[in-house]
Amino acid sequence: MAKTASISTGALEIAERVRAGDVRTTARLMRNLDDGSPEAVEVLRALFPHTGNAYVIGITGSPGAGKSSITDRLIAWYRKQGKTVGVVAIDPTSPFSGGAILGDRIRMQDHALDPGVFIRSLATRGSLGGLSRATADVTRVLDAMGKDVIIVETVGVGQDEIDVASLAHTTVVVVVPGMGDDIQAIKAGILEVADVFAINKADREGADRTERELRAMIELRHVTAPVDHDKHHRFTPTGPATARGEDYSWEPPIVRTIATRNEGFDALAGAIEKHREHLESAGGKLAREATRARMEFLAILRERLVRSALERIAREQGALDELAARIARKETDPYALAEDVAARLR
Amino acid sequence: MAKTASISTGALEIAERVRAGDVRTTARLMRNLDDGSPEAVEVLRALFPHTGNAYVIGITGSPGAGKSSITDRLIAWYRKQGKTVGVVAIDPTSPFSGGAILGDRIRMQDHALDPGVFIRSLATRGSLGGLSRATADVTRVLDAMGKDVIIVETVGVGQDEIDVASLAHTTVVVVVPGMGDDIQAIKAGILEVADVFAINKADREGADRTERELRAMIELRHVTAPVDHDKHHRFTPTGPATARGEDYSWEPPIVRTIATRNEGFDALAGAIEKHREHLESAGGKLAREATRARMEFLAILRERLVRSALERIAREQGALDELAARIARKETDPYALAEDVAARLR
User: Fold this and answer.
1) What is the ipTM of this complex?
2) A173 and A32 in a common domain
3) Which among A4, A161, A327 has the least Cβ separation from residue B293?
C-alpha cells in the first residue's frame, strides 16, 4: 500500500466544525465537494473515521408514488423519537429538490427550520456517474455530523438510482395501487434491493391486488437464482460476508401507508426497525457496510480516472469536442481513440 | 496520434457478414460485445466507417406512458413505407425486453418474424455506466447492418437513460394526460432532450390540460438560460457546431396518439420527419453526430479505464471485496484508496 497524502490542519479544523454540527460549514463543504475541490476531499477523509454510526434508509419507487411525502412523514416520526435526521434527495420530482408543487414545498419548510434536520438535494443530471459518488459523500458528511438517521430519497428507475438505493442499510420501495406497470418495473430490478415495501395511497382501489402481486413476487424470489451482478463488476446488495442464502432469509414486509393522512407510519418505522435488528443479529450490517464501501470506492475511482483522463485529453490532444468531431467525420473510431487515450495515460 | 491496432481478417469477414444482413452473425456479435470480447470490438471498429446512415429515434418517458406501444406502432408505420427498422429496448417494462404482460408480448411476435426488423433488448442493470456504451454499440451495429431507422426505447428517468436518449437524432418524449408528477419529472430533465412530444392515451381526461402545460414549458424554454452541462463534462444535446440559439429555434411539436387504437401515427411520424428536415437544413445533423460520437467515446473510455483498473486491483491488491472490507473496518478511506490505485495505474 502506497502512503497517501496526509490531511492538512485546515482540513482537520473544518472537519471538527462539521462534527460539532456547524450548519454553514457543512453546507459549504457539500458545495465544495460538488465542485470537486481537493481541500473538500481532505475534509471528507478527515471525517471518514467518524462515520458509520448513522442508520441509512433508502426510499425509492416510481415518480408519483409519494416518496417525498413518505420521507416527510418519516422525518417527523424520527424527530418525535428525539432522533436527528439527514436527508439526501435525488428525486427530481421531490419537493426537497425544489421540484414540487407549491403546497408540498410549503409543508417542507417545517423541517427547514428544525436544527435537528439537515436536507441536501442533488441534481440527477450530475457528472459521469458522479451521482453515486456525490450521494455517498453527502451521506458520509451527514453521518459524521452525528445525524442518527439518514434518508436517501431517489427515483427507482435508472441504474445509478438503483445503485444509490443500495447505499442504504434498509431500502424501502414505495408502490401505489393499480399501477400494473409499476409492478413490471419492480420485477425488472428494484425487487432485489427492497427490504421493506410500502403501498402508499393505500386507500385507493386495488391495494389488495397490489399486495397479492407483491407477495407472489417475494415468493418467487425464493425459487429464482440470484442474478450474477459481479459479471459486470456490479455493486451487489449483499457483501461477500453474507451468504446469498442468508440474505434471502429476510422476507420483505409489506406495509400500507396513506402519507397525506399520516397513516401507517408506526407500522413503516416498525418494519424498518425490524429489518435493522435482523441485519444486526445476522451480521448483515457489516456486510452492508462493506457493500457501501465498495460502491463508494468504485464511484470515486471511476470519477477520478475519467476526470484525469479528460484533463490529459484537454492538455495533449485538444478539446474533447474536436475529438468527437473527428469521430463524427469518420477519421477515427471511438474505440481506437479510447484505446489511444488509455495507452497514453499509462 | 499513436497508431491503433489493425483489424484482423477474421474481424473483417464477420463485419462483411453483418453488413450483408446475416441475423445470426449479428446476434452473436451483440452477445460478444456484451461479454466485452476484444474480437467483437475489432468487428465493431471494422463496421464503424459504414455507419452514420441510419436515422436514430429515441423514445423516452415515464413507466406506463406507453412507450413500447408507440415503438410497436412506429415499427409498423416505417415498415409500411418500405423502411427497415432496428430497435434497441432498454426499458425494463418493455415487452421488447421481456418485461411485458402476455397480450403485449404476443403482439410483438409479428415483428419478430419480419426480416426487416431487428430487435435487441439491453438490461438496465449493466456495468459501470456501461448502458450508454452498450446502447451505442448496438446502434452502430444496426446502422452498419443497413437499417434505415433505429428506435431506441428507454425509461426517461435515470441519468444514464437521459444520456441514451441524447444518442438519437430525434428524441420523442411520451407523456400521458393527468399525471402531474410526470410533468414535474419532465421539467426536471427530459425537457431539454425533447424534440417532439407525444401525448399518448390522448382519449383520457386531461389531454387538453397536459398540452397546455407542455406549451407553457416550451415557452419557458425560450427565456431560460441553458444549463451548463459541460461543467461536469456532460454530454450536451447540442454539439459545438450548433449555436445554442439555433437549437432553440426548433419548437417541439406536440402530437396526440392513442397507440392501442393506432391513432395519431401519421402525425407523429410526420413530426419526426419535420425535425429531421430541420436538423439537416440547419446543419444540426452533423452536430448531433458529433454529440453522439462524444458520448460514445466517453462511455467507451470510462468503461475501458475502470475495467483495466479493476483488473489491476485484482492482480496486485487482492480482491475488490477485501478492499471494501478494509474501508468498512475504517483501516483506510475510499478516497485514499482510489488515489492509491490511480497512482499505481500511472
Assistant:
1) 0.72
2) no
3) A327
